[in-house]
Amino acid sequence: MDLHAYIQSVGERARSASRLMARAETGAKNRALTAIAEALLQSRECLLEANAQDADHAQRRGQDAAFVDRLTLTTQSVQAMADGLREIAALPDPVGEISGLASRPSGIRVGRMRVPLGVIGIIYESRPNVTADAAGLCLKAGNAAILRGGSESLRSNQAIAACVRQGLRAGGLPEDAVQLVETEDRAAVGELIAMKQYVDVIIPRGGKSLIERISNEAKIPVIKHLDGVCHVYIDDAADLDKAIPIADNAKTQRYGTCNTLETLLVARAIAPRALPPLCAIYRDKGVELRGDSEARTLVPFMQAAQESDWYAEYLAPILAVRVVAGLDEAIAHIARYGSQHTDAIVTENYSHALRFLREVDSSSVMVNASTRFADGFEYGLGAEIGISTDKLHARGPVGLEGLTSQKFIVLGDGHVRT
Amino acid sequence: MDLHAYIQSVGERARSASRLMARAETGAKNRALTAIAEALLQSRECLLEANAQDADHAQRRGQDAAFVDRLTLTTQSVQAMADGLREIAALPDPVGEISGLASRPSGIRVGRMRVPLGVIGIIYESRPNVTADAAGLCLKAGNAAILRGGSESLRSNQAIAACVRQGLRAGGLPEDAVQLVETEDRAAVGELIAMKQYVDVIIPRGGKSLIERISNEAKIPVIKHLDGVCHVYIDDAADLDKAIPIADNAKTQRYGTCNTLETLLVARAIAPRALPPLCAIYRDKGVELRGDSEARTLVPFMQAAQESDWYAEYLAPILAVRVVAGLDEAIAHIARYGSQHTDAIVTENYSHALRFLREVDSSSVMVNASTRFADGFEYGLGAEIGISTDKLHARGPVGLEGLTSQKFIVLGDGHVRT
């Protein structure tokens, strides 16, 4: 197979389909989403069989248990994919929304209309459920999607993609609106991220190394986050009845997510009251603590942190702890070591809260709330395709709006410029 | 000089300054803008002298008259720079604006806060007035700017940059908030557009070849437009009392701008009534017409268009003219040959107007108005740093808002995720 020619033809068909998708009615898109959900449920046996083959191959190729676990579909996960698509169908359609329409002194009226981005390339690892999620979000936002999943999940993805095509047909939409890159050849990714004329944006989902490579090599804009080194800062003016549950929840509610707390900062004045009870909770939950010398004098069972700990995204029951002089040092620490993902202050001090909100340059900045809230569902976006720590276009959890753009519209009545 | 080390140090200082700029108060920024305007007027003699040296050198290096003309400052253009800065001071500050703050079922309140992008690199040709405009817009939006003007205008830019620094000091803002790349070495551009860690976005202003090169080589996101192949489509349902003045104005009000009409499309049913009177106007104004065979049967003095004419951005008194079957063919022509800049329909038909607005995928889409309206001042943005034909982040004229981003803010009262 000529890989270049194959990916180019996928791109060309996606571009054509994107034109039809851009003008598709909301009802047609929702009918397609619902039909895909039904097709997934009806094809459950086929899906699980294809998936079992994928899992079997992965195991025989020596992939570890965690990998096979992420790859494996169950009756429940097929149901969850179908439910997710129905939820997307129930969200308002962002496309066509006109905002800010106002009259100008020249007599023209100027506003902005929300429009699809066009063609979106999604590159992800061997998690077949992403195939359905990503297809659904791109479709609802009026885009065409090119999906490139991990090669170990190809059979599962093909089975899901067949359901997606069936649903698109049922909605009267072009089948090419969602295409799967059906080759195990890893060079396909390189072709996809260079295809400027056919792809408008690339969204990689997966580990840091995958995303870093794609973002360095892509010739197309990439919406991404590399890592989540999230902070909670317990201010000297914190209410400990809020601070301790927040710092506990931010670290221990789930260890492996990008919005999990990785470095705890505590103001010197409150550290003697905050750290001992909080660290006892962590110890009871089996969290390994790595602190600076000041923190360790307060909590003797804490290990010594290295410089590298302040940069670490553990994704594990490990927490770095640092005592800081106060707000300024906390903000400076986050600016130096953070990853601009999600950072929270716990304080009752009005000025400190406002300064933290304004000055911390992260995609989500919080006051008196757990960093674990940073996701599309909690924020009311309905669903998310990922989180962006970039500053351009989309920042933070990216939902349907992040998959669209706005163009200017001008309404005149014969107006000319003088 | 070690160019790499020099540009890196410019970047590092810009990044530091950007942190102070992000928290600068509106009043300080406005005081600085006003002080820069005053400094420019007070230093007028120095500016004009430095500029005369630049112009002299450029002439001796064999630059043509148009080049020297763009480079040359006059008493009037210095006044215009000062006026422009005062206008920017009068615009509302976009930074800190909070929108969409709403309560979520969990009890947290989630909204978005508008924040600066950080460090903006502006690369432009030998037009010294861009130095003041770009500095002013970046400053007001709370960013640090690195300015790299054409090397033939270095002395002029240095004189203007001295006034900018003076104004920044007067406003109590860091002088490094606006830095000029003070070397004639063209390799400086390559260094600047690769400096990912210190520069958040590159905005190139100038000819298509400059922008194309920067956009291909940059490691940083670029906000740009390559060309403006703008269309006016006179629909079969057009009112000719509107269509003829609009098509005339869009082409002839100014020939050299990116929002000037380059290809006129006319519906077959109205062409016999529209083209003869309209083309007579064009002929009287000295516009060369290049049409397809059908247009030429209606207007005998029209020359024959080549395929390349449909792609052409003439920036000159030349116009391509094509007769199309109707709306669908017009939309298809624009999708194929257009540059997604600005396109207009003239029609009284409600459905045609809505379809054109929805389906034409350009940064500005207009009904019954001249394409010449596509700019930041006419749209009420107050000023513009450029026009973007990209879909991500900013589309169309880019004002202060396009120089900012939005982060999520979460207001809790001890909330944790369950």
Task: Describe the protein in words.
Two copies of one chain form a homodimer. Chain A contains 14 helices and 16 strands. The first copy, chain A, is α/β, with parallel strands linked by helices. In chain A, strands 10-9-11-8-7-12-13 form a seven-stranded parallel β-sheet. The first copy, chain A, has a four-stranded parallel β-sheet with strand order 5-4-3-6, sandwiched between helices. In chain A, strands 1-2-16 form a three-stranded antiparallel β-sheet, with no helix packed on it. The radius of gyration of chain A is 24 Å and the shape is globular. Chain A starts with a helix and ends with a strand. Chains A and B meet through strand 2, helix 10, helix 14, strand 13 and strand 16 of A and strand 2, helix 10, helix 14, strand 13 and strand 16 of B.
| Percent strand of chain A | 15-25%
> What about the largest sheet of chain A?
7 strands, parallel
Largest interface: pair, residues per side? A-B, 69 and 69 residues
Low-pLDDT regions of chain A:
none
Described by its quaternary structure, the protein is homodimer
Radius of gyration of chain A: 24 Å
> Could you estimate the helical fraction of the residues of chain A in percent?
40-55%
Trace the largest sheet of chain A across and list its strands.
10-9-11-8-7-12-13
Summarize the model shown:
Two copies of one chain form a homodimer. Chain A has about 425 residues and is α/β, with parallel strands linked by helices. Chain A has 14 helices and 16 strands.
